[in-house]
Amino acid sequence: MSSQATKPTFTTTPLPQVADVAISFPTPSILLITLNRPKDLNCINNLGHHQLDALYRWYDNEPSLLCAILTGNGRAFCAGADLKEWNQANQENKARIQPPSGFGGLSRRSGKKPVICAVNGICFGGGCEMIINADIVVADQGAQFGLPEVKIGVVALAGALTRLTRTVGKQRAMEMALTGRTLSADEAREWGIVNRVVQKGTCVEEAIKMAGLIAANSPDSVIVSREGIKMGWEGVGAEEGTRLVMENWYSRMDGGENMKEGVRSFVEKRKPRWVSSKL
After folding, report:
1. Is 223 found in the same domain as 160?
2. Which residues constitute the signal peptide according to the record (predicted)?
3. Which of 193, 215, 237 is the last residue of a domain?
4. Is 149 among the catalytic positions?
5. Which of 143, 146, 149, 177 is catalytic?
6. In terms of domains, do 83 and 168 share one?
7. 255 is catalytic
């Protein structure tokens, strides 16, 4: 399902269809993805993982889009996996295979462009795994975070365990994963999982503002800067990561139109007029 506040013009293949998701465009350069199964606390089923993966890949390839936001409808951001589907799959001995990008197409996503999570409420299990791998997280006051998998005999295998350790440190990651306890929005911010806690009901509005700040910058610079930070987070050494960014990314943007325009606009004391990234 899709709707739009504006009518952006896309140059790539048509917008993928995603069941139980509302798609809108607060501005022509921002993609807003809203999980829309409020009665099921926006749990994501197996088809949803693959459809969301296709949507993020489309987003990365669509030059007009510069930042994406993920949120939920109702009192939950996402409470995790569809356990009814999981139970039925167990009874029928059917495999449940996620795409390489993981839970909701996001928990293990590398991607090219940034994703902001606007956490409006309950964020448990796979929902929490998604936000741990997001680029920026804005949460409503009252939002709740947790990895309760141990309480139902499963494990957070969608990428959160190793990533959480890098974000919050071993001891806090152990506490969160082994107790399965719930963190408040303020505690999640204190631990470094959340960037900003805002008044209840305003996380999407705040995320759109932040996405606008990102979209106002050079799309080439955003892509390359994100890649450098991501390399460090994934464990690449400082010097090796710098070398890889310079050789594989900066060399492709050096001398490009956006770099020339940025320098020229500074000298001419005007706002830059960016073109779509070709990276």
Report:
1. no
2. none
3. 215
4. yes
5. 149
6. yes
7. no
Instruction: List per-block mean pLDDT (blocks of 10 residues) for the chain, which spans 279 residues.
Output: 62 87 96 97 95 97 96 96 76 80 96 98 97 98 97 92 94 97 98 98 98 97 94 89 87 85 90 90
Choose, from 129, 146, 185, 241, the residue flagged as catalytic: 129
Beta carbons within 10 angstroms of residue 95's beta carbon: 6
Q: Order of strands across the sheet with 76-78?
A: 76-78, 122-124, 144-146, 183-184
In a domain, 113, yes or no: yes
* Per-residue pLDDT tens digits for 121-161: 999 999 999 999 999 999 999 999 999 999 999 999 999 99
Structure tokens at 10: 């896309």
* Catalytic residue list contains 81: yes
Q: Residue 175's domain spans which residues?
A: 21-215
Our answer to whether residue 68 is catalytic in this structure is: no
Counting beta carbons within 10 angstroms of the beta carbon of residue 188, is it exposed (0 to 12), middle (13 to 18) or buried (19 or more)? Answer: buried
Residue of 68, 81, 188, 215 marked active site: 81
pLDDT at 72: 98
